[in-house]
Amino acid sequence: MQKKDCFLFGTVFKLHGYKGDVNIYNDDDIPFDFSTLDYFLIELNNELVPHFIEHARKTKANVVLVKFEDTNNETTAKKILKQKVYLPKEWLPKTDATEITEKTLIGYSVVDIHFGELGEITYINSQTSQQLIYVEKDGTEFCFPMHEKFVKGIDPKEGIMQVEIPEELLDLN
Known about the structure:
By secondary structure, the chain is mainly β. The chain has helices spanning 74-78, 102-105, 167-172; strands spanning 6-16, 21-26, 39-44, 47-60, 63-68, 84-88, 109-112, 116-125, 132-137, 140-145, 151-155, 160-163.
């Protein structure tokens, strides 16, 4: 499965015990029935690798405790520590069609009113004081703040975010 068909669920941020259990920080605290999930996709060497779930449960807000089938000790669990965790977009809980969320913006084209197409939204970081939108084109990535000064319009029908970003900001990245 490719990243463009997935959304960032969170990050493996901590080991739990010595039997291979891990804690995943769920960036947006997306509600899921974890008993229905078969696997998470973990990014390893820039590829999404499925890791099948033995059991998973929410332990507190934004934290999911997971035991993967092939992760039975601390050494194996350390290999996925600090890695990004993805799920297929079709698993996202259904929302109101008119509601625009961070996750629905992934894959949108970013078009600047002066410079034209800048690329595609690959990630939105909400863990900073100002949300950052990450855009990639031809293997080059840059980011800009999610702010009304930069974001001029969003067209959910066309999957386009219209922006006006100063050239200096683009050159920083």
